[in-house]
């Protein structure tokens, strides 16, 4: 792992943050999770646009321009030096006095991390088992799901419940009993050649990988449709899968111990292959610079 902080890239043992930072004290801040695929950062501009929207929504002025963010993210990834990686860009409210008043926080803090990630282990290939979480997704008038904030306690507790009940991941419903998303990924249901996914208004984060499928799927003869879903739609599906920058594209094999099996040939291998091609075609190069040439030979 490599971490950009205070203008330099360091290892985790040298990365420190104040205990008075409101990101730590109150979860006051925003973040983005990005993927490096084949040495290229994928959908960088869309990630930054979402970060800027999240920051505006919580009245947080970003302390760096987009070009500066591109530079520091690139420096972090280059220092990490791996062609496949996960990047976490965090902006906190910064150091302030105790209490939730933000007036004392004068300097927002940027932290960028690059590392490997494996959210589901072997289940990412074999298929994850979903458990319907008992905690519902808050309505947009509580906290709009389009705001990717540091306060992930709802997600954390839903994931904890799923693991405690023997699953790999939680299926999170909104107050009306409609599917919002998983604890850390978007949900897709395939019916024939249609891919159905909940709209943001049902409590889903409008994921960047999710957005990418709207571009890739039609090239494979698949139609992507935003539509409200319930648990029954998952059980009746030809195929169910999750998407996310951290998760990738992951099959689902069960919901609440009821098996979900693909009724015909899975489309996931095609989607995964086209995602890599998309990265090669549209991603931002960010890999480590080529090693220096060897010194010239000495005199013979």
Provide an overview of this structure.
The protein is α+β, with helices and mostly antiparallel strands. It contains 8 helices and 16 strands. The strands form 2 sheets. Strands 7, 8, 9, 10, 11, 12, 13, 14 and 15 form a 9-stranded mixed sheet that branches. Strands 2-1-6-5-3-4-16 form a 7-stranded antiparallel sheet, with helices on both faces. Helix 6 links the parallel strand 11 and strand 12. The longest helix has 15 residues. The radius of gyration is 21 Å and the shape is globular. The protein starts with a strand and ends in a 15-residue tail after the last strand.
The main β sheet shows up as:
9 strands, mixed
Secondary structure class reads alpha+beta
The percent of residues in helical segments reads 25-40%
Share of residues in strands? 25-35%
Total of helices: 8
Shape: globular
Q: Report the strand count.
A: 16
Low-confidence stretches at least 5 residues in length (pLDDT < 50)?
288-294, 296-300
The averaged pLDDT comes out at 92
Termini gap: 43 Å
Radius of gyration: 21 Å
Key descriptive features of the protein:
300 residues; alpha+beta; 9-stranded mixed beta sheet; 7-stranded antiparallel beta sheet; disordered C terminus
Task: Write a short abstract of this structure.
41% of the residues are buried. The protein has 300 residues and is of the alpha+beta class.
